[in-house]
Design a protein that fits this description.
This protein is an alpha+beta fold. Helix content is 41%, strand content 20%. Strand 10 and strand 11 form a beta hairpin. Bound molecules: alpha-D-galactopyranose.
Length: 393
């Protein structure tokens, strides 16, 4: 909902004057290529969406924190002296995790009333959790700085790291930095080329004139995704440990393809070799994608996206029947030049590059064929690329 409407709902809920309500927002992301590479010190290429989390809030004169979501009934009241008790609540635990990490980093959590509005599908693989984390971190860090009289803008890369730590330490998902970084640092019409080993990054204008980014949601209920995610991560760590006995690299994602090919035998386990092969070649595909976009070669970019999906399906094994069906059906459409899963996998969304005049046909035919095969319908989002976390004045 728009800012005005959100403020009206806030007043209806908490009372008081409109003038004292402030609004913060942070988006979800779509990753165009570079999947399961971030926690391996490799490259990713995500962009912030225009869908995300918006928070209306008002500072209180005590330490109480009350929060509610526009699509849920209950107000959650948070007592930060006992953060553990919120770990398994249905909604609100990401926020608690963020407050805990902000306190560890020296921020003072200011009491406030908050109303959250989320426009991303929950658990749909477009980083709805990172959007909540980064918006929450920005809001509380801003209030803390003001209370302490610190007159400088909030460091958004720090907010991304706080969000990731909340997820790692509090929520218990061992995610990398990509989602929070994209949510914090995105820029309208740009994609972020991020080197995850040192967070060096470049904003790349999205040169795909005549084409659209079409996101399709499998609408699969996510199950076991978090534990499988952590398992993949452990497999990569184990492969790297073996490789380190013969070559000197700190991350899987920085090993050149030829060096990897010569030394992969040392991993000694077929599954782990497959996982590592995906990571090494996927990082190479990201570099080739940047080059393709710089040369205005959208067709090559699309082919690299296809290669990425096939590797995630066959080597990393994180796609599943729903994502594979979406992607297979997408690739049959004349005008779709590349299609792949985006995010962690095991359900969630695909991303496709589709010629503008073919978008309607794409939605219709992919929607119908997916429904016939899977038994329920996908959802589509033709999304613009938006800005990262900010206060909306
Ligand atoms: C999830 C994680 C990210 C990243 C992707 C896979 O979105 O949160 O850190 O690992 O999966 O690329």
């Amino acid at each position: 909902m728009n800012k005005q409407k959100l403020i009206e709902e806030f007043i209806a809920l908490y009372g008081g004057e409109k003038e004292s309500v402030r609004v913060f927002a942070s988006p979800g992301r779509v990753n165009l290529i570079g999947e399961h590479t971030d926690y391996n010190g490799g490259f990713v290429f995500p962009a912030a969406l225009t869908m995300g989390t918006t928070i209306a809030l008002r500072v209180r004169d005590d330490n109480i924190i009350r929060m509610k979501a526009t699509d849920l009934d209950d107000i959650v009241e948070i007592d930060l002296s006992a953060p553990e008790k919120y770990k398994d609540i249905f909604w609100g635990n990401y926020q608690v995790g963020v407050c805990v990490e902000l306190e560890k980093a020296g921020y003072e959590i200011v009491g406030c009333d908050m109303l959250y509005d989320d426009t991303l599908p929950h658990g749909g693989g477009l980083s709805s959790s990172a959007a909540i984390e980064v918006a929450t971190a920005l809001a509380f860090a801003t209030l803390s700085n003001e209370k302490k009289g610190i007159d400088k803008p909030v460091d958004m890369i720090e907010m991304a790291k706080i969000g990731q730590k909340a997820e790692n330490n509090y929520v218990g998902v061992n995610c990398g930095i990509m989602d929070q970084f994209a949510s914090a640092m995105g820029k309208e019409n740009h994609v972020i080329f991020l080197d995850c080993k040192d967070l060096d990054y470049k904003l790349v204008p999205l040169n795909i004139s005549g084409y659209k980014i079409v996101i399709a949601n499998t609408n699969k209920k996510r199950s076991l995704a978090d534990s499988k995610y952590n398992e993949r991560r452990a497999e990569c760590d184990a492969a790297l440990e073996k490789l380190k006995t013969v070559i000197d690299y700190d991350y899987l994602g920085v090993i050149p393809v030829d060096v990897f090919e010569k030394n992969k035998y040392v991993i000694g386990d077929e599954i782990k070799i497959k996982r590592a092969t995906h990571v090494v070649y996927e990082c190479d595909r990201v570099l080739k994608s940047i080059e393709a976009l710089e040369n205005n070669d959208v067709i090559k970019f699309g082919a690299l996206m296809n290669g990425s999906h096939d590797s995630l399906r066959d080597l990393y094994e994180v796609t599943g029947i729903e994502l594979d069906t979406l992607v297979d059906e997408a690739r049959k459409i004349d005008g779709c030049i590349g299609s792949r899963m985006t995010g962690a996998g095991f359900g969630g969304c695909s991303v496709s590059i589709v010629r503008e005049d073919a978008v309607d046909k794409f939605k219709e035919e992919v929607g119908k064929n997916y429904t016939d095969k899977i038994g329920y319908a996908p959802s589509f989002y033709v999304s613009d690329l938006g800005d990262g976390g900010r206060e909306i004045k």
